[in-house]
């Protein structure tokens, strides 16, 4: 069904075609020459027998080399097939563009994309595609597909024509050989070969090539395949290489048997894990009647035999050069198939392409993608074909063979040093010093008159007019192969770069905690991701007069759009459209999340403001409070304080409910309300704490808390600590640490009913209570942090003390490190009520 051999230039030889006449010879001379001819016949017969075997071996080598070259070109052309599934989906336009590239590169005129369909999903697949599954009838026709557990159905075929349309829906599982190839390709890298097969159209003998199409995770999303009609290949081999009776074996099994006269030779090669054996015989078998004819021939036939021997030697030389060129082309194709970047592609071409055209050195130069006015020379032999200063970058307007070929898009020929000196006198000395006699610079073809750069060949001998056509044809093939490989590598570079940028963008969105932060990330990261002039979030989109602007609605935010502006002249391809929609979906999800977070923070701030009230003004006491929330970092927590004034005493409660967010705030509010109510109504500290403990146990929650009672009539302070950091009491005689822990956290059943502790609290004494956010640090033990508070200047007003503690804490940790709430209460006794 599909062609096998790429059209390659033939190498012709010039044979002397001078005329010979017997009229100048005497009869005796003719007799002598006839005897000589008769004697020579014996030797000619022996030579003919030897030459016949050599010709068969040469024909087999040529056939095997051409066969290997064509299969290598086919596998190399499909090496970049994974670029089809970057987004996990292969569509018709992407596949047709890829198949066109393959056709131009490897001479395969048709390619099919097929996907695996579960038998239970057959009807759904047919309804969604509008295709009917078909099996081959083995005679070149198609019939409705049989019922199977799994189908491998052709979804697209390109180029689109009557023949390719006829095979859409063909189920390759109807053929066990093709099914074997699909199974092998699914678990292997690169193209696989199986056979023999009968082509779908015409039921002709063929070989099946198949390769998996994988997404970014390596999972196959489908397969591409092509049937290769071997009888067509054999016909072209007979014409191109002057061979006949071609036969092909794969792993010892016959693929093609053309019959013949029984005289043939064979050559073998290995590709894609398969061993191919190609047999062939010479197109012009030895004529064993020739010795008898020569025995009776005249001198004219003797001279004719001599001339035939000359032509035979010339033909063998031509075949040898053809074989060497085919091998060099195969080596170049195999090398280019391994390239993973544009730079590596250029270097591999420079290393291997010279052998195809017989050049002594090769230079590859590529157009700079960001600045097309610059030509970037990536091979270290640049001195031999162009820049005299050894620079790796040349401006395209420089007067050099490389830059001229890139600038004009035409081949630049300098067949000898005279032409070189006349065209480029400024570099002729460097050329002569390098031993260069001739140069050929060919644009790297990308198709459709586009070029990727230039490949330049330098020769250590002048090129004769007879060599020019042959060399130019070979150089053109090399430029096309290199240009296509460069384009595939450039696509891989671009795809990988965009995948990396998209990953960074998605990761950055997960860390943003506000809608403003999302907008900032979009403005900063989307332009390089999509190669744009700018990108922004807008809450509505009107009719834009700017031709370079495009907008995309955010999936979760109906009124919001992603607005992008393209660079002037930027072509917006289908893959760009798909990537822009992916970006819009990511932004929509992040914006929805951050807006919910914004709303939650607003509610928590309102609740916080309602719960953290200013302290009461109490005669004989100076009271100040302070609070810093971790709301901006992780949400408001359960830290709280409460100062309660009663006729007999001043109560202080400070605590910390485990957790953050609405749940912790709600528990904090409940515990605070319970404690305020109980202490206001005269309940003892011990009973109030026990009641709060039962409340938290019912909620399956925990909290630390310290409660103090300062008697207004006496100089006594009573406190009870439930797993909370100790407070400090600054007195005239020293610092008293309220470090007696009476019970575990509230919410945890105590072993026994705790009793409170009493200490003196005289006029001038200062009480400092706080939550762990004030003293906890990852780099410092808690006891050391509390001990640092001993140096506090307690002579200042209590409000200044509180401000100093909070600002110093923020300074030491930094704003970004505020990962816990901070609550502080200070009470100074100024006198005793009488």
Structural class: alpha+beta
- As a whole number of angstroms, the C-alpha radius of gyration is 44 Å
Measure the end-to-end span: 113 Å
Alpha plus pi helix count: 21
Q: What fraction of residues sit in β-strands?
A: 25-35%
Give the topology, please.
Blueprint: H1 27-77, H2 92-106, E1 111-118, H3 122-129, E2 134-136, E3 142-144, E4 150-158, H4 162-166, H5 176-186, E5 192-198, E6 205-214, E7 220-229, H6 230-241, E8 243-250, E9 253-257, E10 265-271, E11 274-282, H7 290-295, H8 299-337, H9 342-352, H10 354-357, E12 361-367, E13 374-377, E14 393-395, H11 401-408, E15 412-414, H12 417-423, H13 428-433, E16 438-447, E17 450-459, H14 465-511, H15 515-530, E18 532-538, E19 549-554, E20 557-566, H16 574-611, E21 621-628, H17 631-634, E22 637-645, E23 649-660, H18 662-680, H19 685-698, E24 703-711, E25 716-722, E26 727-731, E27 734-738, E28 757-760, E29 766-770, H20 782-788, H21 798-813, E30 822-829
Antiparallel strand pairs: 1-4, 1-7, 2-3, 5-6, 6-7, 8-9, 8-11, 10-11, 12-13, 12-17, 13-14, 15-16, 16-17, 18-20, 19-20, 21-30, 22-23, 23-24, 24-25, 25-28, 26-27, 26-29, 29-30
Helix pairs in contact: 1-2, 1-6, 1-8, 8-9, 8-14, 9-14, 14-15, 14-16, 15-16, 18-19
């Amino acid at each position: 069904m599909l062609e096998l051999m790429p059209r390659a230039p033939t190498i012709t030889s010039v044979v002397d075609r001078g005329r010979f006449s017997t009229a100048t010879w005497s009869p005796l001379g003719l007799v002598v020459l006839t005897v000589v001819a008769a004697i020579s016949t014996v030797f000619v017969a022996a030579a003919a027998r030897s030459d016949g075997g050599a010709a068969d071996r040469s024909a087999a080598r040529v056939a095997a080399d051409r066969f290997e070259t064509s299969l290598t070109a086919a596998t190399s052309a499909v090496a970049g097939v994974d670029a089809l599934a970057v987004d996990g989906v292969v569509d018709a336009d992407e596949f047709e563009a890829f198949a066109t590239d393959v056709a131009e590169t490897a001479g395969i005129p048709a390619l099919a994309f097929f996907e695996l369909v579960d038998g239970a999903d057959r009807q759904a697949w047919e309804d969604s595609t509008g295709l009917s599954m078909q099996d081959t009838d083995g005679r070149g026709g198609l019939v409705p597909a049989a019922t199977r557990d799994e189908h491998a159905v052709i979804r697209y075929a390109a180029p689109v024509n009557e023949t390719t349309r006829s095979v859409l829906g063909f189920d390759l599982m109807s053929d066990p050989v093709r099914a074997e190839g699909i199974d092998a390709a699914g678990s292997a890298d690169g193209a696989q070969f199986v056979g023999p097969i009968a082509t779908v159209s015409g039921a002709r003998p063929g070989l099946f090539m198949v390769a998996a199409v994988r997404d970014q995770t390596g999972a196959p999303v489908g397969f591409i395949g092509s049937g290769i009609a071997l009888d067509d290949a054999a016909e072209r081999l007979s014409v191109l290489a002057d061979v006949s009776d071609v036969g092909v074996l794969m792993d010892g099994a016959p693929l093609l048997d053309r019959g013949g006269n029984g005289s043939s030779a064979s050559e073998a090669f290995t590709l894609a894990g398969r061993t191919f054996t190609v047999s062939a015989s010479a197109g012009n078998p030895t004529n064993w009647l020739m010795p008898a004819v020569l025995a009776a021939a005249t001198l004219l036939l003797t001279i004719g035999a001599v001339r035939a021997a000359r032509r035979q030697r010339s033909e063998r030389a031509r075949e040898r050069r053809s074989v060497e060129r085919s091998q060099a082309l195969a080596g170049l194709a195999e090398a280019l198939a391994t390239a993973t970047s544009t730079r590596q592609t250029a270097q591999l071409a420079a290393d291997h392409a010279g052998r195809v055209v017989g050049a002594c050195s090769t230079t590859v130069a590529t157009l700079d993608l960001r600045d097309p006015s610059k030509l970037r020379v990536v091979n270290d032999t640049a001195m031999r074909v162009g820049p005299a200063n050894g620079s790796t970058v040349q401006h395209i307007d420089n007067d050099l063979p490389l830059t001229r070929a890139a600038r004009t898009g035409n081949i630049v020929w300098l067949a000898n040093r005279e032409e070189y000196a006349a065209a480029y006198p400024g570099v002729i000395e460097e050329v002569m010093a390098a031993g260069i006699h001739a140069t050929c610079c060919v644009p790297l073809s990308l198709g459709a008159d586009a070029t990727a750069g230039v490949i330049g060949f330098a020769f250590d001998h002048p090129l004769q007019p007879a060599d020019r056509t042959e060399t130019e044809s070979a150089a053109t093939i090399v430029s096309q192969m290199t240009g296509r490989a460069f384009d595939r590598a450039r696509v891989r570079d671009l795809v990988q770069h965009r995948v990396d940028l998209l990953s960074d963008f998605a990761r950055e969105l997960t860390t943003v905690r506000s809608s403003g932060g999302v907008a900032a990330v979009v403005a900063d990261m989307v332009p390089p991701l999509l190669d744009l002039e700018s990108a922004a979030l807008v809450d509505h989109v009107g009719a834009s007069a700017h031709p370079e602007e495009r907008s995309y609605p955010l999936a979760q935010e109906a009124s919001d759009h992603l607005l992008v502006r393209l660079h002037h002249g930027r072509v917006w391809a289908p893959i760009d459209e798909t990537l822009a929609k992916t970006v819009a979906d990511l932004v929509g999800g992040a914006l929805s999340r951050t807006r919910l977070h914004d709303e939650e923070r607003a509610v928590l701030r309102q609740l916080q403001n309602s719960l953290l009230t200013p302290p009461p003004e109490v005669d004989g006491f100076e009271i100040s409070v302070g609070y810093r929330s971790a709301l901006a970092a992780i949400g408001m927590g359960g830290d709280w304080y409460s100062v309660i004034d009663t006729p007999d005493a001043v109560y202080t409660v400070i605590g910390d409910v485990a957790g953050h967010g609405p749940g912790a705030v709600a528990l904090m509010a409940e515990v605070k309300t319970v404690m305020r109510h109980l202490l206001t109504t005269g309940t003892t500290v011990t009973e109030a704490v026990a009641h709060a403990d039962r409340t938290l146990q019912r909620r399956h929650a925990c909290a630390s808390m310290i409660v103090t009672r300062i008697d207004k009539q006496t100089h006594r302070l009573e406190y009870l600590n439930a797993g909370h950091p100790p407070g400090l009491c600054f007195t005239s005689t020293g610092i008293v640490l309220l470090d007696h822990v009476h019970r575990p956290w509230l919410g945890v059943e105590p072993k026994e009913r705790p009793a409170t502790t009493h200490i003196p609290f005289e006029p001038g004494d200062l009480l400092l209570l706080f939550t762990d956010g004030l003293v906890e640090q990852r780099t410092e033990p808690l006891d050391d942090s509390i001990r640092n508070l001993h140096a506090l200047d307690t002579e200042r007003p209590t409000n200044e003390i509180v401000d100093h503690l909070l600002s110093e804490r923020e300074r030491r940790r930094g704003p970004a490190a505020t990962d816990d709430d901070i609550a502080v209460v200070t009470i100074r006794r100024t006198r005793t009520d009488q």
